[in-house]
Amino acid sequence: MTSAGSGLTLPQTCALSLLVFTGASQFALVGALAAGGNPLTAAAGAFFLGVRNAFYGLRLSQLLALPRAVRPFAAQWVIDETTVVALAQPTRRSARIGFAITGLTLYVLWNLTTLLGGLGAEAIGDTDAWGLDAAGPAVFLALLAPMLTSGVERAVAGLAVVLGLGLLPVLPAGVPVLVAALAAPAVLCAQGRRGARNGKSDGKGADR
Amino acid sequence: MNVWIAIGVTALGCYVVKLVGLLVPAGVLERPLVRRLAALLPVALLAALTAQQAFADGRVLVLDAKAAGLAAAAVALVLRAPFLVVVAAAVAVTAGVRAMTG
């Protein structure tokens, strides 16, 4: 796709999708390389963007309760989309099915479109003119909305948006999202303190 | 050659990070605070990613047709529209605004 237009060969582009399989990191790596960046600096930026997958894995491992032997294989599919689909399921069984189906479908489609995109990059034309670049945030918003069940979640989301956007111009790519993740412990901490002040003397109001 | 090194480092790093999250012992996750935190982290990350994809171009903040598209998606969500309708609304409004503003 975009990487074909920025100096990477077709095998390199396909290897990225097969091996990295984290869209944001791939775009970051390609962008940094295209801008003439040092390969290791580019890899570091892509790596920081991928760090959030560890937090997803943290949540998924308790949800899916996968056997230890399966985990190294499941790990490659721990990304934004599979996590969100798995989290949206009511039971462990459906969560596992959701994770597997989403993972497999995306993996196949992602690599297929990469190959097709690399082969016919010029033929596709300007996707922005069709508003397709708005699909990404819309998907994320649709996935995020059901999670905002209480004031705590809304506070976390609001703080994360402010941090993610506010720090974007000043920090290297990928880092603002990680800093925005700190909204979760920050809100929990504030909530715990408020709980403690409101009479409960155990001092850990967030532990519920 | 350098490009291949970058690809290799990125692939390995991204995979290890994914695996680490899955391999953290279950005992750690039994603690209520960790459980609460693990539930809130995806909320924070998704919110930040949504905002960045909608209001940023690279490292520059922008307010363009995508914002209108996202607003349309939000309205569709409030109206409890199906997932595909939400995404379609965002795409259609974004394309419409772009066509009108040139």
From TrEMBL, chain A:
GO cellular component, one term: plasma membrane
GO biological process: L-valine transmembrane transport
Membrane topology recorded in Swiss-Prot or TrEMBL: Multi-pass membrane protein
Transmembrane segments: 27-51, 97-117, 129-148, 155-188
Superkingdom field: Bacteria
Keyword annotations of the record: Cell membrane, Membrane, Transmembrane, Transmembrane helix, Transport
Primary location recorded for the protein, binned into one broad class: membrane
Subcellular location: Cell membrane
A Pfam family this chain is assigned to: AzlC
Family: Belongs to the AzlC family.
Protein's name in the database: Branched-chain amino acid ABC transporter permease
Lineage of the species this protein comes from: Bacteria, Bacillati, Actinomycetota, Actinomycetes, Kitasatosporales
Automatic annotation (TrEMBL), chain B:
Family matches, as Pfam families: AzlD
Keyword tags: Membrane, Transmembrane, Transmembrane helix
Residues spanning the membrane: 6-25, 37-55, 67-97
Name the record gives this protein: Branched-chain amino acid transporter AzlD
Origin superkingdom: Bacteria
Organism listed in the record: Streptomyces lacrimifluminis
Keyword Transmembrane helix appears in the UniProt entry: yes
InterPro entries for this protein: Brnchd-chn_aa_trnsp_AzlD (IPR008407)
